[in-house]
Amino acid sequence: MKSFSTTLAAVLICTLCFVSCSKEKDPVRLPDTETPDPDASLPYVGRLKQEVSTVNGLKTYVDYSYRTDTLLEKIKSQSAAESALNYRIDFVGDRGKLWEASFYSFDPARNLQELDSMTKYIYTEGRLSQKVVSLPRQPDYPGYAIVFEYNQNGHIKSARKLIEYMGGGTQQTLWDFDTDMSGNVIQLTEQVINYGSTVSRTFYEISYDDHVNPKYLLADPVVFYEFFSPNNVTGVRASNSAGISQTRDTYRYDDFKRPAVRTHTSDKDDNRVLEYYYW
Question: Any residues with CB less than 8 A from the CB of 21 and at least 6 apart, and which?
Answer without folding.
Answer: 56, 58, 80, 81, 82, 83, 84
